[in-house]
Design a protein that fits this description.
With 420 residues, the protein is α+β, with helices and mostly antiparallel strands. The chain contains 13 helices and 23 strands.
């Protein structure tokens, strides 16, 4: 059994770099299918979700290899549209192959996607938008079958700013006939990153009035070499770990412009921030204040992917806090584990109510999802004594080496492989 062992109770002091973004890399991997030839993704994060995506791509006929930190993808021999490999059921982002396979081959067949258990996350918004472009869906043996003779540009109004649906529609629209307009789409930085990548390949995507994505279809795209943006959620996790431990850290390669909603809360808590180019110097020695009301919202609101870590950091605040989760209905699994560490947390409907705890006590806890696992690491760094976090496989879905990064920040943390 593999677990993370943390000896907590000391302020973080140190510096670390931020890896490339998980949530940007996955749709970009799907987008690489749209161009025939070899695409190179520089500094691609070596995380489990990337490995799942590349396993699917190899099944479809792509050739994948690493050159140091760079991931190379040759799609010249892409021929299959039927996804069967187990990786498709392990992650939500496998559904992004719908848009790219329909764009490249006009057909796609894949199982309903899996991933962390944090809510229903249906893909009906994806499918309704694709139907508007002429895609026909049928269900067979728990699989999604999609086909189209020719993708047609159209006007699409999304009922909710779903990141995945916006990305899937972008992937389908870039090679469609005519112009597609997506109103009400997601504005997350990862959507912008996908648009930049596609535009570099030869797509024609722009925002109109800041509210509508306009995509003029082109006949073909070309492979490119591209460097993925740094991961704002990883950066946010480490900043909140500094809050929990009252530390002072320096982070390099931070996409600070994407962290405005977190910055607001860090300042309210008493944190002091200096930004120098892409470096952030964060002094959390006086970041002791609770937050009366934080709501997770689509970008530019506070990100749901930092909700659990924020809750962990607030357990030792000097006043009560409350976080309302509006994006996913089941993102509270880590809260029960935090109470094992003496955190004073109650869940009321979709709100986390946190009373100040005198201290956190290290104990054995289990990660049940990616960001919940990060929250347990944050809590373990602040707790007295030793914390053992099992479920490391969830952390490896989004953090290329959280143990090494935290060690660089001065945390007493290690990964242990215990023989059965």
């Amino acid at each position: 059994m593999e677990y993370i062992r943390i000896k907590g109770g000391i302020p973080l002091r140190g510096e670390a770099g931020i890896q490339s973004s998980k949530n940007a890399a996955l749709p970009i991997l799907a987008a690489a299918l749209l161009a025939k030839g070899t695409t190179v993704l520089e500094k691609c994060p070596r995380i489990t979700d990337v490995y799942h995506m590349t396993a699917i791509m190899e099944e479809l006929g792509c050739r994948i290899w690493w050159e140091e930190e760079n991931l190379c993808i040759d799609t010249s021999q892409l021929s299959r549209f039927d996804i069967c490999c187990p990786s498709a059921r392990c992650m939500r982002s496998s559904c992004l192959f719908l848009g790219s396979l329909l764009g490249r081959l006009g057909q796609a067949r894949l199982p309903y996607p899996g991933g962390c258990v944090i809510g229903k996350r249906p893909i009906d918004i994806h499918m309704e938008g694709l139907k508007s472009m002429g895609v026909v869906f049928t269900e067979q043996e728990e699989k999604i079958n999609a086909s189209v003779s020719r993708l047609e540009g159209c006007r699409i109004q999304l009922s909710y700013p779903s990141v995945g649906a916006t990305e899937n529609l972008l992937l389908a629209a870039v090679l469609a006939e005519g112009t597609t307009q997506i109103k009400g789409g997601a504005k997350e930085p990862e959507v912008e990153e996908l648009s930049r990548f596609l535009n570099q390949m030869g797509a024609r995507i722009r925002w109109k009035d800041g509210e509508t994505l306009v995509i003029k279809g082109v006949k073909s795209l070309s492979p490119v070499t591209y460097q993925i943006v740094p991961d704002r959620i990883v950066a946010g996790t480490y900043l909140l770990a500094a809050v929990a431990t009252r530390g002072k850290i320096t982070l390099h390669n931070v996409p600070w412009g994407h962290l405005g909603a977190l910055e607001v809360q860090l300042m309210k808590m008493g944190g002091r921030i200096r930004v120098l180019d892409h470096d952030v110097i964060f002094d959390a020695s006086e970041a002791v204040h609770g937050l009366k009301e934080v709501r997770t919202l689509p970008y530019p609101g506070f990100p749901t992917d930092l909700q659990s870590q924020l809750a962990a950091a607030l357990t030792l605040a000097d006043s009560p806090s409350q976080i309302e989760e509006t994006v996913f209905e089941s993102r509270f699994a880590a809260m029960e584990e935090l109470t094992k560490m003496q955190a004073r947390i109650k869940i009321k409907e979709r709100k986390i109510q946190i009373q100040p705890a005198a201290f956190l006590k290290g104990t054995d806890v289990h990660a049940g999802d990616l960001r919940g696992g990060a929250a347990l690491v944050v809590a373990g760094l602040a707790a007295q004594g030793v914390t053992k976090v099992t479920g490391c496989e969830f952390l490896e879905r989004g953090y290329s080496d959280i143990v090494k990064d935290i060690q660089s920040l001065g945390g007493r943390i290690e990964k242990v492989n215990q023989q059965p």
